[in-house]
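We close this part of the discussion by returning to an individual protein. The amino acid sequence and the backbone structure tokens for this protein are reproduced below:
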Amino acid sequence: MSKIRISLLLLVLILVLLGSLFLAPKVLNPFALNTTERSILFSIRFPRIIVAFLMGMALGASGAVLQGILRNPLADPYILGISSGASLSAAVALLSGSYFFGKFTIPLAAFFGASFVSILVGFFGWKRGFWPERILLAGVGLSFLFHAVLMFLMSISPGERLGRTIFWIFGDLSIADWSLIPYGSLFIISGFVIFLFRAKALNALILGDELAHSLGFSVHRERLLLFVSISLMTSASVSLGGIIGFIGLLVPHVMRFFVRAYSRVLVPASALGGGALLCMADLIGRSMMSPMEIPSGIITAIIGSPYFLYLLRRKDVLGI
């Protein structure tokens, strides 16, 4: 049964990727491409799908890891305040109109903002150890602070720049191109590799600090390393295309229907599921009101919130 479910998951992933590549807003026949269609495929759609998949992969994997280290089934990568820091720094660049690094300005601003908040969360979350409760409270407090500053800046900004900022905050994949992919891949893969080396420690942490300690793991050190993994993946994701909600919260629960809850299996499955979900959301956003685009973050919220409310009624799924 497990093999059938995994095969079904892979089939859905392939179909979603192919649909995102060749469908809306203009259907492309891969066997009969003219020059214009070939340019659309390789210059616009390919990099956009790769960026969407990388972002979804990072958020799905981060959500599964975070729910493990916090032992909280409702944990989400953005609960750490990383998205608020990225939004604020990106909004400063957008609202000021200062593009010192050209098209890399907004991704770099978002990445450094997210990284800065990650360091702050680690600083406030550490007190004779790296405690889940302190991490959570530090993230929530910083999130409210940066969100308030962001709202203040948006309230006093001129209208022509405000729309672009709002669109980015809700998840804008229209800026994706090949030049963004290498650096985004570097940080996301680095974070994922850190997790792979600490997967056994994550399994132990899920069972409780005392058991993890009895198995020979340094609880606070392992939690810190996994926090670095989450921070790298989430920061890179936000910098690539803005804030995409619900993926890190929802996808790990969905993947538990298909695979075991063992972290070395669940986290990679959540990465694949997150990538597929964001590609599907991007496809829907491009096609619903063409030629207008709906930000992917809005689509994921529309898809995710009803299903998540359904999951909340199934206590056995959430494990509480």
The chain has one domain: 43-318. Residues 312 and 318 are 7 Å apart (CA to CA). The longest helix spans residues 35-69. Residues 43-318 form a domain with the ABC transporter involved in vitamin B12 uptake, BtuC fold (CATH 1.10.3470.10).
